[in-house]
Every structure is written in structure tokens, then in C-alpha cells.
Model the fold of this input.
Amino acid sequence: MSRMSSLQTANAVQGPRNPSSEHAALWRHEGGVLPPETEAIVMKRFLVLPFLALMLGGSPGRSAAAAAVTFYVDNLRSCAGFTPCFTTIQGAVDAAGPDTAVEVFPGVYHEAVRIVAKTGLELRPHGVVGPVIAPPAGSDAVQIIQSPGAYVGGFVVDRGGILVAGGASNSPTIEDNFIRSAGGVSFLSVVSCVARRNTVAGGLTGGGGRLCVFEDNVVEGTISFDEGVGCGARNNIVRGNLVRGGDIGFSGRCTEDNLIEANRVDGGGIGLQGSIGARNLIRSNLVRGGVLDLRGNVAANTIEGNFVSGSPTDGIRVAKSVGMGPNTIQRNTAVNNGVCDINEILPPFTPPNVWLENRYVTKCGAAETGAAGAVQP
Amino acid sequence: MRRVILLGLIAGCAGAAGMEQAAAQTLYVDNVADCAGLAPCYPTITEAVNASAASGVIEVFPGVYRETVRFDGTRELVLRGHDPAVPPLIAAPEEGGYAVVIDASPSTQILGFVLEAPEAAAIWVSIAGSAGSVIRGNLIKARDGVNLRNVAGVTIADNTIDGGIYADGGRSLSIEGNRIRGDVRIDESPGMHVMDNRVSGNTVRNGSIVITGGNPHSAGGAINNLVESNLVIDGSVRLVPYKGRDNTIRDNRVRGGGIEVGRGALQTLVEGNFVSDSPGDGIRAWSTGVPPGIGNPWFGGRNTFHANTSVENAGCDLNDTGLPGTYPNTWSENRFGTSCGFVTDCPSPGIWYRDGDEDGFGTTGQRAACQRPAGFADTSGDCDDRNAAIRPGASDTCNGIDDDCNGAIDDGPSAATSCDDGNLCTFDACGAGACVHAAAVVPRATCAPAAAIVNPVSQGNAFGLTIALIDRCTGQGLDASRLSPIYVAAVATPRAGRTNLPVPDSGVGCRQDGIWETPAKRSLLAPSTLATRFQAPSDGHCETLDGNRQDIIRWLGDVGAGNQVEVSFAASYPGAAAAVDCTVTLTVRGRAR
Done:
């Protein structure tokens, strides 16, 4: 008989991005000649200040998994039920707003992805197995244009490469990709770029980048920085890379305050050819089969603790232009090189470089002249 | 006091560290200079090894060392660069020579060198006595890369290796994080099965990862090996033992090759891999096993191929040859374009939802499959996957639970009906998740036209009803004055030829007697069956129900004799579950003036 309604009880059912900061101000120090006795200062300048800068301003680039919204791409199925689901990467990129992650399911994507005017876009695999991007012949697999804070990580790129154009595309991160063919990774006048743990055929180009970090990559070809559209490559770090069949090279005006450290260069050398190249530190690198070469308008650079062997010509060679101030070459080892283990070509009216405690067998030119503590078997 | 304790701890730790350092002898090698004054200093690595104690560290200064460094016997040595950032170079001295040989020498560590052996392997490790050896962080350029024979417990990690890795008999090997050109191959050797090896996180180019093992007469085989998270470019992953079981191939990327599980592979899990651009099949199962009569009979199969992606391969993306004499394999949730043979997977799987209580509704844990997997449903929305009685569409009984998963507790009509105890004299309700049975009043009304009926009925006059109330549960009379009207309706049927009917009065309710006194109560009159024909009592004609008399209708028109008027009345009574109602029919006897 009872048919009154119940007492109803409502039941309520209910990464950080690390955009780089302009740490040039911290990193940069006053110009001028660097006497050898200021070794400690050099260390502070090149190691302590960048470290502080990174601590204060965050490392350049960004890490994955910082996006607010996630889009999915699957050209085989329906994204396992995840939505929104796109069949092409480009479709997802075009639909993405700021700080969107585009997660791509395993598959081969025959497209040239253009990321244009997208802020904080992340392109990454869905799951642990990265997809393949195979663009049409002659195209880059991924182009990043006017898109700050972009992230591309975890892909196999078959044909083509990855291109990041400067301008507004600051703080891009290219990480953990495998660039199978000769497309390489290129940054064109980009600030705070990061290339980390990639395997790259075709080289890694920094252009006239500033505050970039190239770290722990395996590169077939060269790692290069040049003058670019601005003054040149400054305040970059190239560290822990394995470079095979090519050089690490810096050239152009304003090649300043760069750190080239702990790289292994096999079948190539390390070159610094600045029209104004100063205060760069080349330290603790292995060079096998190439030359560690400093030439041109270079001054106040430090070459320290490197090991050079198997060069078909000289091991460590410094050939600066007339009138340039001294560079410091200290505690390096150069042996088994084809011509001279160390060689200094000193033009007239030019102050000598400072050679300290280097280990070598043969020397040429003015190298090691009167240097205290030199080792010569 | 704290400071004293802290200093003591620091001193103790420092002392312990110092003792450990003293126990592990460090020797130095420098063929360019004098070890920067550190002693003992040797010009060759071999001399330092020969001079070392049972355990120790040999630090090598940068230089090119043309020698074959041999570790044999029982020494436990660590060979590393003096500057960890700058690797020294060991070059095999003669044609066909090795750079490093580790022969039954346990826990040898080769850390951070460049090793060159253009005509042979750069590192040769042999005999199970070399367990615990570590080869890490080296750049190895050799024709044959790293060779192992009959070894167990060796770690090869974070190296760059030209020439591959070849193990002729290996157990508990850890091959991790290397960049390799050439094959990674582990075969069975006499006396050592291929067991418990881990090949993970490597990049392998121009080569394959190959695991064999077992032979027609062996009792072992390739057992419990793991190939995981490798990137293989222009090569394949091949598990092709004569006998093998319980191996796993998981989360690998293979580009330009395939994954192959063959011969006597039994109970292999192939899961989460991505294969593309193979010149043959993408993922292929071709188990054969060892026919009876040749050694111990062994049959391959019962392998599981799950959640792999295989596309754009020259052959079949998935292929199961299903040879006679082998156990069938299981294929599920793979993503592919083409399949051949006995592959049972489908190209367009449905989405299924985990259904733990098997009530036909799942939760958010979803899976793509061709057919509904056991324990899954095709519909989601279950809010308690451990209770089959709780699901969308279930009866939401009075229990404090959202039985029908609509987001509200005890909100359905069944919550109330579930509390019905069948007793007319109880008031049944659901409150706070439980039924409440309160004593109820069940009034029964007896109503009749008021004494004078409607004779005569004149325009502007009123007539009423007599209502008597009793409680059906107790038989006791009830106070009719406590009735609260719900509606009053009047329907008139005119005599033939007459048109005068009762019509609504726009007058206000009875202000004096408290029954119709508020517009709100008057509004309750609205649900009349003939809303335009009711009339509220007007001033001057409203009487209380005391005395069972209520004037509720008055005529507004000229109502002729013979007209019939049906008056219905409904009211609520405090504590009653149902409304009290009655209907009477009046006949106009006289003519209204």
C-alpha cells in the first residue's frame, strides 16, 4: 500500500615545462685575454656559472608530459578508445591549441608534419614503442616554425629530418629520436634549443644558436654551429656526444663562451674557426682520427684535457690570425698522429699561445715553446 | 654533544673509506709520461695487470696502448681511465689479435676505453669463472665486436660496439643500453644452456638479435630469456631455438626486419612490439619442434602474440604457419594490415571493458579485441565491478547504495516499493538507506450532498457536501476539519435545451474559516478534471467542515431544473498515505432565479 517516495539522498558522482631563460647574462663574462694563471676563473666561468644559470633559470627546452590537453593519432585503429582520435599527425597538430600533447600510436606515418604557430606542443608516442614518420621524398619529417616550447620525442624518422626554424620557435626540445637517414636535425638561429639522446644520421646543426644544449647524442656526420643570422653561436653546450665520421665545428663571428666537453669524436675532429672566437672551452674530449683545430681570429680560448690520436695530419693545431691574443692549451694528450702531435702556427706580431703540461711525442712550430711542466718523452 | 657525535660519525666514515681504499690497490699506467707522479706507474697495461694483487684498480692515462690485455686466474680487477671523461685506447697489436681477453677471471671490469681490433673481437670473455664481469661505457671498434664463450653473469652495458656481440653459451647475461652495429647472438654451447639472459634497451643496426639454444638431444634449451625495449634497424629479432620455453619478446621496435619465433619455441610471449618495413613477414610463427624419435620429443607452439603492431611489411604482417605437430598459438589484440596462415586475430577489433563481476557492464579498463575476451563486456558504466547486483539498469532498492549507477542513491521508484511491507496501516518509506515503517492513518470518506440538496438552487447560492471520516485501521472517527482540500471539481450536464451551467467564480477564497483561505491552496484546485468548470467557495458561503458541511459550489448562471451536476472533492489528511476523495451527483430541482 505504501507508495510514498523515498527520502532521496543526492549522491554526488562525481611536467614540467622548463622553458629556458636567458641565462646569457650569468654565463657571459667580460671579454679580454685570459692568462694561464686564471685557470680557476676559467673553471668558474665555464662550469659554475652555467650550472648556476641552469639551476636558477631551468634547463633549456622542456620535458615531456607537461601538456594540459592530449590528442591521439592512430592510422590503424581508433586510438584504443581514446579521444579525440585523428588519423594523421598533421590533423592533430592543426587542431591543437596551446600546451597540447599529441600522442601517436605505433604505425608508419607517411607525412611531413608542420608545426606552425603552436605554443608548447608536444609530439610523442602513445606508450613505450615509438612510431615511424616517413615523409615524402625531399621533405623534412617534422618542421617547427614560429612555435615556442615545442617537444618532439621518441620517434623513428625515416627519410628527411627535423628542422626547427628560428624566430619565435625558442626552447624546442628534440629528444630520444632515431633519425635513420641523412636528414639530420637542424636548428636555425634558435635560442635555448635542446637535442638530447638522439641518434642522428646526417648531422646535428645548431646554426647561430644561443644557449643550446646538444647532449648525449650519437651523430653520424657533424655537429656544427655557425654565424647564423645573428652575431653567431654563443653560450652553447655540446657535451657527451658520440660523433662518428664527422667533426664538431664552430665557425663564424661571435663564436663565444661555448663549452665543448666530454665528446667522443671518431673519424673526425673538433674545429673552432671564428672570425671572432673567444672564451670557448674545449675540454676532456676524445678525438680519434681527426684534428683538434683552432684557427682564425681566435683568442682567450681554452683547450684542456683532451686526448687526440690517429689524426692523418696534426693532433692539436693552433693557427690564429695576426695580432690575436693567446689561447691556453693545457694538459692535453696527443699521440700517434700523422704529422705533429701538437703544432702552433704563429704569424708575425702575434703573441704566443700558452701551452702547459701537454703530453705528446712530436711537436711543430711554436708549440710548447718554453712552457713549464711540459712532458716530452 | 651533537657536534661531537657528528664529527665522530664523519671521522668513522672517512676512516672506513680510507681503509677500503687502502685494501683495493690502485696501479697506474702511462706510456706517454710518468703517471703525473702517481705510483706505481707502469708503461703497459699488461705489466700492471701482472703486478696487481688479487683485487685492485688499474687506472690508465690517455694514450694508445698496442697490446692484448689478458685477465686470467682469479684476480678481480677494475680497468678504467684515469680521467673518466677521456678514454684511453687499447689497440690489438697484431693481425687477428684481441684487445682484451678475460679468461676465467671473475668480476673483471672494463670501463670507459676505446678498444680497436680490426681483425678480430675487441673483447674475448670465456669460461663461466668470469662471472660478475662488467664491460661498460666503451667504444669498441672490431670486426667481431665482443665475444663470449660459456659465461654467466656478465654485464655488457652502455657501450658503442661495432661488430656485434656473440655469446657461444650464455646464462644470466645482461646486454643493456648498447649501440651495436652487427648481431647480438646467443647460442647454446655444450654444457651451457641459454637461460635467464636479458637483452634490453639496445640500439641494433645492420644486425639482428638472435637467440637459439637447445639441440635434439639436450634437456635444456633457451629458457626464460628477455628481449625488451630494443630498437632494431635493418635487422630482426629471432627466437629460433631447437628447444625453448618461457621466453619474452616485448616492446621492441623493429624497422627493416621482422620478429620470428620458430623451431621449438614454446610458451613465448611476444607483446607490444612494433614491426615495419620487413622484407619478409612482419611477425612470423613457424614452430616445428623436435619430432618424436629424435632425442627427447619436443613440440613448439602455445606462444602468445599480443598487442603488437605490424604494418607495411613485404610479406604478411602476421603469419602463423601452424605446422602439424605443434601446439596452436594465441593471437590477440594485434594491430596489422594483413595476416596469413593460422593467425586468429582480426583487423578491426572492438573495444571491450573489463567486467570483473560479469554483470554485462564493464569499467574504464578497456581493451581492443576481435571477440569479447573473458571477463570483459561491450558496455561500460558499471560503478561497482565487484558486485553483479550493481550495474546500470538495476533496481535501486532502499539500501544506501547507488544500485543503478546513475549517480544517486536510492532514487528510483523501486527504492520505495522495496520498502512496502504489505500492511495498509503502515507508512512505508526509504530514508538514509533503510526502510521506515511508521503507523499510518487510512481515512475513508463517506460523502453526500448537504441536507437540502439543491432545491432550489439559485444563481449565487451555494450547496455543499457532507463528509464523514473514519480510520480504516482503527475504525475510529476522524476529524474532518483537518482535511486540506486538494481539488474540487464540478461538471454539469445540462438538461436538453438548457445552457445554464455552473461557471468559475473569480472570487477569493473563504477568509474566515481557514480552508480555502490562501491563494496557494486555491491553486490546488487547478488539477480539476474540468478546470474551467470548478468554483471556489466565495465569501459568505464558506463554512467549515465542522458539522460535515461545506458549501463549495455556487451557481453563477441561470441553472434550470433538471440539470445534473457532478461534484468531486479530494483532500489530504495528516498522516494518511492517500488522498480522501468522494464524488456526488446533484440534480437541480428548481429553477434558479
In short: Chain B touches chain A through 72 residues (CB under 8 Å).
